[in-house]
Every structure is written in C-alpha cells, then in structure tokens.
Design the sequence.
C-alpha cells in the first residue's frame, strides 16, 4: 500500500512539474513577443518624439488640401515617419474613404515593419507583404478581408487597431460593461467584433460621436491617421474609465425595506452600466442631482431587481412616514414619477414592451393633487423633461404646463399624443381625464415608436 502511494505521489509530482514550466513558458513567450514588438517600434517612437513644429510645417506645405483640416497634425506626423503618403501633385485627400490595403500598410509600418515590396508589386498588389505580416502577427485573420482594394468598415478598423495595440501593451483593466453602455448602437456591431471594438473605446484608440459608433460606416484617411498616431503615442489616448462626475451616489430612505426588493439605508454608487438603457442612467442622474429643486418631501427609491429609480413626492416627511411605516394600503403621495424599467426586458412585439404603442411607455408622471404638484414639484419635473427631450425640451415643458393648467383651472379634460425628440408622448389633464381632476404624462423610450 505504501509503495502504491509513493508511486502515485511520484506520478502526480511529475505531472505537476510538467505542467508548471509549460504555463510559465507560455507567459514568457507572450511577454517576449510584446518586448520584441516594442523594440521594433523604438526607432519610430524616437523619430516621432524628435519631430519639431518646423518639421511638421514643412510636411504640411507639401500638401495643398490639409492646412485647414482638423487632421493636419496627425497626417503630418505620420507622413514624416513615412507611414502615409499623398497621391502626388500636392494632394493627400484627408476626407477620402480609406481602403483596406492602405490601413493594413499603416498598421504594419506603425509596428516597426518595413517589408520590401517587389518591383512587380509596386503599383499593383503592393499590400501583399504587409498583409502577410498582419496575418502572421494575428492582426487580421485569413479571409477576414475579402478585397483589399475596397473600403474598411469602422468595426473592423477598430478591431484591427486593438489587436495591434495588444502586440506591445498589457491588457487593460476591464470596465467592459461601462464602455459597452456608452455605445448606443452596440447591438449593430457584428458579434465577432463586439469585444475588440469596446476595448478600443476602453483604451482610447477610438471615440464615437454622440455615443454612436456607426460600425458599418467607413473611415476617412484622416480618421485612420488619428488611430495610427494613437497607436504610436500613448499620451494621445484618453482611456475610457468612470469619472467621479459620472457616479450617481445616494442612499435609500430608511423606510424602504418593503418596496419591491430595495434595501433600507443602503448606499449606492451607480454608473451607466448599472442600467439597461443609457437614458435611464441619465434620468436617474437628474432625479438625484436636481432633487433640491423639489419642494415638500421627495423620496428616490431604488429597486435593485428592476434597476429602476422611482420618485414619490409628499407634502412633508410625516405624510411619507404614514404611507411607508403605518399603512401602505393608503398612499399619501401627491405625485409620482415612475421609470417602468421592467418593460426593457419584455420581448419586442409583446404587450407592454417598449415598442407597444399603447402601454409601452417607459416613464410616467401622475398626480391628482395638482396644486401641490404645481407649487412643489414642477421645477423638478421640468429638469427631468430637459434631460428626456433635449432640443425639444422647451416644447415638452410648454405642453406639460398647458395640460397641468387645464387641471389647475378645472377645465374640461383633454388627451393628446405628440412626438418630441423621437419619443412618443401621451398627455392628459383637466376635469374628467381621470374620472376626476388630474394630470398624467406618459413618455416612451427614444426611438421605440416610429412616427
């Protein structure tokens, strides 16, 4: 029995010894490859760092179409490094669509490679040596680009740039979900490129416009120059990580235990990635930051299960306590602003889903105690409407006040639908609108309903 144990122990020891060096070696190989790439790039980086304003001005004079262009500096730097060139006759074409072959050449040269181009390929398939290197380095995959003479999509360009970056830099800290939440058209990115596009955002290689990436669009030559310059110059890359100003910090009220699954007196620090839609984050941020504009006593109640922050307004804290601590069957709130976040998770086309034109509204404002609402809550709600309706905020506030005044002045009730800021809005107010007197506003998610 002892012999068997010894044999087993020896076998296990051999297995473990054989595994450990293999794992360590693989890490060393990865590190070594990164070091080799870094060393290969050193001459480029040294030359880049030595460029003077005079050098860049001299380059700029060679082109007659970039002096007033926003990409002038990036183009001049890469031209000085020999990574890009113009068409001849003083033309660079900064706004021209970038071709796949051009981009691969720029990427490979930025990594320090200077392959020889056979004379037979000089004016034909000049890109072949660069493509061969890119494939061998894993920067592009076999067959990933069907035609190198055609434009490259933004999603593939971002993916290639991130793969190149990972040849000489360490994997950044995560914050994947945070950056994903900031790309509003993330769903339009092809599945095989989603991760690398998000990480290209994370590392500061690329940025979107108004939180849109437009993955299937093409790149211009100037835009590509920016990406390549950022590969070389880390100082130009602004890493996308949460800033203190982005956190929504608050504490649930002490009486919040019974409300859905929310936690009494629990403190929160929420980011965009903590909400299923970015607009829900923005509205929640307004609810917390503008709370001082509300009169009376306002509670912001966060429910973790639905990732939603709802607001109830009371005349004072005593009336709030009666509802939460004495008898929840008889609400004492005079107004509520509700975020119906659960609808985000309902399959499109089904009842109550965001694209349901009847009951799919994402937000609702409701009051039957219109005088209290008008005196205490209206400025607070106006700020929420500014967040939701942006350029159409003035019109939204005007409509809000009109229907509220119908109720305040005991006018006959009116109900009407509108489209503002690409949102459907249903508003009712006045006598008879609720079987009594009241005001209600229902607001759909942006773009959920087509006009």
Sequence:
């Amino acid at each position: 029995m002892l012999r068997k144990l010894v044999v087993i122990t020896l076998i296990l020891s051999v297995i473990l010894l054989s595994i450990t060096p293999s794992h360590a070696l693989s890490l060393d190989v990865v590190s070594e490859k990164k070091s080799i790439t870094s060393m290969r790039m050193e001459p480029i980086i040294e030359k880049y760092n030595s460029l003077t304003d005079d050098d860049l001005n001299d380059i700029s004079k060679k082109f007659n179409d970039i002096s007033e262009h926003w990409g002038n500096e990036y183009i001049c730097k890469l031209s000085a490094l020999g990574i890009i060139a113009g068409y001849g006759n003083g033309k660079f074409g900064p706004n021209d669509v970038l071709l796949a072959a051009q981009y691969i050449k720029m990427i490979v040269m930025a990594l320090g490679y200077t392959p020889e181009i056979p004379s037979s390929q000089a004016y034909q398939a000049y890109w072949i040596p660069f493509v061969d290197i890119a494939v061998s380095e894993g920067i592009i995959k076999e067959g990933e680009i069907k035609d190198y003479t055609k434009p490259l999509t933004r999603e593939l360009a971002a993916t290639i740039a991130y793969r190149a970056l990972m040849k000489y830099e360490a994997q950044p800290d995560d914050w994947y979900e945070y950056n994903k939440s900031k790309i509003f058209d993330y769903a339009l990115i092809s599945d095989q490129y989603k991760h690398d596009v998000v990480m290209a955002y994370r590392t500061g290689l690329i940025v979107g416009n108004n939180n849109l990436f437009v993955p299937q669009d093409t790149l211009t030559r100037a835009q590509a120059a920016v990406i390549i310059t950022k590969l070389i110059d880390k100082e130009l890359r602004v890493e996308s990580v949460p800033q203190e100003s982005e956190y929504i910090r608050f504490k649930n009220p002490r009486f919040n235990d019974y409300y859905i699954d929310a936690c009494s007196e629990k403190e929160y620090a929420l980011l965009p990635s903590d909400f299923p839609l970015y607009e829900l984050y923005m509205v929640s941020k307004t609810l917390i930051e503008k709370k001082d504009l509300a009169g009376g006593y306002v509670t912001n109640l966060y429910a973790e299960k639905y990732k939603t922050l709802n607001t109830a307004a009371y005349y004072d804290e005593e009336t709030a306590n009666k509802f939460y601590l004495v008898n929840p069957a008889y609400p004492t709130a005079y107004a509520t602003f509700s975020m119906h976040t659960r609808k985000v998770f309902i399959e499109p086309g089904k009842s109550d889903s965001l694209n349901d034109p009847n009951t799919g509204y994402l937000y609702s404002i409701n009051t039957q105690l219109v005088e209290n609402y008008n005196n205490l809550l209206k400025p607070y709600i106006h700020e929420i409407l500014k967040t939701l309706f942006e350029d159409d905020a003035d019109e939204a506030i005007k409509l809000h006040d009109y229907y509220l005044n119908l109720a305040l002045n005991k006018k006959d009730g009116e109900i009407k639908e509108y489209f503002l800021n690409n949102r459907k809005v249903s508003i009712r107010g006045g006598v008879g609108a609720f079987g009594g007197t009241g005001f209600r506003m229902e607001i759909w998610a942006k773009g959920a309903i087509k006009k």
Q: What stands out?
A: Residues 244-443 form one domain. The chain is about 40% helix and 10% strand. Residues 347 and 353 are 6 Å apart (CA to CA). The two ends are 82 Å apart (CA to CA).
